[in-house]
């Protein structure tokens, strides 16, 4: 079965760091573009970061310089390192696979709450 | 970045009725437009890609159309499970962007 399982979310103080993990099964993470998409409580979807199949990365301006996407092919896992967290980063973070230029597989999400 | 504007924000309909959702892009995205459905407490679900292609397992009552800057998602006859929030997304130019969503409510 093709699926994504995120973990690593939690309550963190402003300025703190977290690393989210997304474990893939049923496919290999280096064969597709893999993205993180977030959703603040009661709000819409916001694309955050992508790791291209070739290894390049790209981040939204709102997180550039603070967030870093990476992968470990031996663990078939994609990560999102989040530093200098702000209250506005509070959201459910979803990992998503891109296939046919659309997100066809989504994880259930991991919640990040930035608050003192 | 490309801004996607969805309308209406809320659509109040009854089961069996036809739903017409709109997504307008601030510049042309060709046919690189995707539709998702999201229910409370769940991740989004892919419905339509390339503006008009139904994803695997999506019922034929869902159809997408449009190109350039104007796109439409039609649900021909609403089933109880179709009441949800619908988002459009463009894949033409990075950064990827989503519309603000249309809530289809009973």
Walk me through this protein's architecture:
The complex is a heterodimer of chains A (116) and B (106). Chain A is mostly beta strands and 116 residues long. Helices cover 0% and strands 55% of the residues of chain A. Chain A has strands at 3-7, 10-12, 18-25, 33-39, 45-51, 57-59, 67-72, 77-82, 91-99, 102-106, 110-114. In chain A, strands 2, 4, 5, 6, 9, 10 and 11 form a seven-stranded mixed sheet that branches. Chain A has a four-stranded antiparallel sheet with strand order 1-3-8-7, with no helix packed on it. In chain A, a hairpin with a 5-residue loop joins β4 and β5. Chain A is globular, with a radius of gyration of 13 Å. Chain A starts with a strand and ends with a strand. The model of chain A has no long low-confidence stretch (mean pLDDT 97). By secondary structure, chain B is mostly beta strands. In chain B, 0% of the residues lie in helices and 48% in strands. Chain B contains no helices and eleven strands. Chain B has strands spanning 4-7, 10-12, 19-25, 33-38, 45-49, 53-54, 62-67, 70-75, 85-90, 97-98, 102-105. In chain B, strands 2, 4, 5, 6, 9, 10 and 11 form a seven-stranded mixed sheet that branches. In chain B, strands 1-3-8-7 form a four-stranded antiparallel sheet, with no helix packed on it. In chain B, β5 and β6 form a beta hairpin. The mean pLDDT of chain B is 97. The chains are: A mainly beta (116), B mainly beta (106). The interface between A and B is medium-sized, with 20 and 24 residues.
In short:
The complex is a heterodimer of chains A (116) and B (106). Chain A has 116 residues and is mainly beta.
């Amino acid at each position: 079965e093709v699926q994504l399982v995120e973990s690593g979310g939690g309550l963190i103080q402003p300025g703190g760091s977290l690393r989210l993990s997304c474990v893939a099964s049923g496919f290999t993470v280096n064969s597709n573009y893999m993205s993180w998409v977030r959703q603040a409580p009661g709000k819409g979807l916001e694309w955050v970061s992508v790791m291209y199949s070739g290894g390049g990365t790209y981040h939204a301006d709102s997180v550039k310089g603070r967030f870093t996407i990476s992968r470990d092919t031996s663990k078939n896992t994609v990560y999102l390192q989040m530093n200098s967290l702000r209250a506005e980063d509070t959201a459910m973070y979803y990992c998503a696979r891109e296939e046919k230029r659309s997100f066809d597989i989504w994880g259930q999400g991991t919640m990040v709450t930035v608050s003192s | 970045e490309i801004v996607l504007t969805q309308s209406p924000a809320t659509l109040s309909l009854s089961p069996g009725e036809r739903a017409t959702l709109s997504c307008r892009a601030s510049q042309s995205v060709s046919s690189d437009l995707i539709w998702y459905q999201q229910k409370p407490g769940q991740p989004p679900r892919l419905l339509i890609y390339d503006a008009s292609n139904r994803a695997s397992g999506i019922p034929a009552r869902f159809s997408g159309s449009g190109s350039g800057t104007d796109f439409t998602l039609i649900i021909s006859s609403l089933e109880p499970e179709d009441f949800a929030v619908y988002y459009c997304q463009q894949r033409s130019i990075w950064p990827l962007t989503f519309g603000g969503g249309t809530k289809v409510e009973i």
